[in-house]
Amino acid sequence: MQWKSIAHLVEDAAQRFGDKPLFIFEDKPLSFADVNKLTNRAANVLKSIGVKKGERVGVMLPNGVDFPIVWFALAKLQAVIVPININYHDHDLTYTLDDSQAGFFMIHIEYLDRWERVRAHLPSVRETLVVGEAGNKSDWLRRMDSASDEFDPSEAGSDDLVNIQYTSGTTGFPKGCMLTQKYWMMIGQVAADYFQLTPAETNLTAQPFYYMDPQWNTIASLIGGASLVILPRFSPSHFWGEVIKHKVTVLYLIGTMPFFLLKIPEDPSLERGHNLRVILCSGIHPKFHAEFERRWGAPWREAFGMTETGVDLVVPLEDVESVGSGAMGKPISTKETRVVDTEGNDVSEGGVGELILRGEPMMLGYWNKPEATAETLRNGWLHTGDMVTKDAKGYFHWQARLKDTIRRSGENISSVEVEGVLMEHPAVQVAAVLPVPDELRGEEVKAYIILKAGLTSENTPPEMILDYAREKLAYFKVPRYIEYMIDLPRTPSERVEKHKLVKAKPDLRVRSYDAVDKVWR
C-alpha cells in the first residue's frame, strides 16, 4: 500500500486536497484539511482520558461527520473502534460492549436512556463520552474546542487492529471481525479504482456508518480526492433530489434499496436529471436489473463481499451482457476463489458448492472466538457459507446459504440469537426462527413458537411475545410473523429440522400472525 496507515492517509489527503470538501452532510461541507484538524483534536481528547493502543472504544453515533472523525482519531491512536448499531437495545448493546470489553463508550445523547438501563452490567466501560447538544455544549464538544490541532501519527501502521466489526453468525450472538488498517485501505483502493475516483467526482453514502459500507466509501474518497455526501438515512422520497443537488457521480447501494425507489411513482424529470456514471450494488434482483437501468439511466453493477473478507467479486463496468444474469462477479486481483463440496473437493464447472476464498483484504479472525475462527478459516481458506455455481465466463452465481441467518433489508440476523431471546419469555417452550421470502425486504423473520403447557394463543397472544422481543432486540430482528405449533420436526439429536418447515407449505405466511398488518393470515 502507498500509505503506512489510515492515519497517514488522512494526513496525506489533507495535504493533497486541502480546502476541497471531503464530507458534505446536511448541505454543510467539511474540507479534507479541516477533517484532519478535527481528527487530531479528537485524538488528543481521547488520549487525554486514557485511550491508548489496543483500547476498544464503543461508538454509537448517528450518521454525520462525528463517526468518521472518531474512527480516524482512533486509527491515529492505534486504538480500536467497536461500531454499535444505533437500533440496538438492552440485549444487543450489553452483549456487544461486554464481548468487546470496551473501556470507553461514545454515545449520542439521543440513545442515552438505553445506556442508563444497562451500564450497571458493564463494569469494563470506564468512561462514557456523550456526543450531541442539549442546551449547552456537550462535554465532548467542550473538550474538542480546547484540544490541539496537532497530533503525531507516526507510530500507526497498516497491521494495527482498528475495527472490531460485529456481524451476525450461525452460533448465536454476532461475532466481532478483527479488521486492520490495511484491510480498509485495500477495500478503499479497490473502490477508488473501480469508480475511477478523482477530485472531480462526488460519492454518496446512504447507509449508516456502523456498517462497513460508508467506512470503505470514506477511504475510497480519501484516496481519490472525491467528496462524500453523507445522508442522515436512506429516504426513497428524498434520494434522487440529493443525488441531483450534489451532482453525485458514483454511489453504492444494497439490494433492497432499489425496490423502495421502484415503488415511488416514476418521474423522469427527477430520476434522469443526474450525473451518475455508475451505481454499484450488492444483491441486484436479476428480474428487475434491466428495469433499474432503464428507469434511472445509469449502469448498475453487482459486487459481493462480507465483513470477514471486505470485497471479493465484482462485475466489470464495461460488461453490459451481465445485466439480468444474476452474476455476482469475478474475483478481484488479490483474491483466489474455489467452489467445493462438503468434503472440501472442487466441484466441476456449473456444479453447486460452497464459495471459499483466500487473499487480501481479510479479517484476522473473530474477536475472542478461536473456535469460530477455526471453523471459518480452514487451511488458509475462508468458508463463506454461500452456495454458488461458476459459469464458463468465470462469474459466480448465488444459489443458497449454508448459514442459519436471515437477511432483512440488508441486515444480517442470526436466527439463533432471536430464538434465544424468544425462549427467555416465560410463556415460550421452544422457538425456531426462519426467513420468509419478501419482495421488498428480501426476507422477513418468522418465528415458530411452542407455548408452555396450559397456554394458548388466546391467553398468550403473539403481541405479548413480540413486545418482549421489542424490548430486548433491535427492531429489525423482531419477527414479523408468528406461528404457534404443537410440535416441530426434529432430528434424533433434538435439533429442529428447519428445512422441513420450509417445505411444509408453499407460503410460509399462511396460518401466521402478521405483526405489521396486525392480522392472522
Q: What is the CATH fold-level name of the largest domain?
A: Rossmann fold
Cα-based radius of gyration, to the nearest Å: 23 Å
Mean pLDDT: 93
Count of discrete alpha- or pi-helical segments spanning 4 or more residues: 16
CATH architecture group name of the largest domain: 3-Layer(aba) Sandwich
**Gross morphology:** globular
CATH class membership of the largest domain: Alpha Beta
Sheet having the most strands = 10 strands, mixed
Measured distance between first and last alpha carbons: 56 Å
The count of β-strands is 27
Q: In the residues, how many domains can be counted?
A: 3
Percent range of helical residues: 25-40%
SS content category = alpha/beta
Proportion of strand residues:
25-35%
Let me know the CATH homologous superfamily of the largest domain: ANL, N-terminal domain
Which stretches are poorly predicted, pLDDT < 50 over at least 5 residues?
A: none
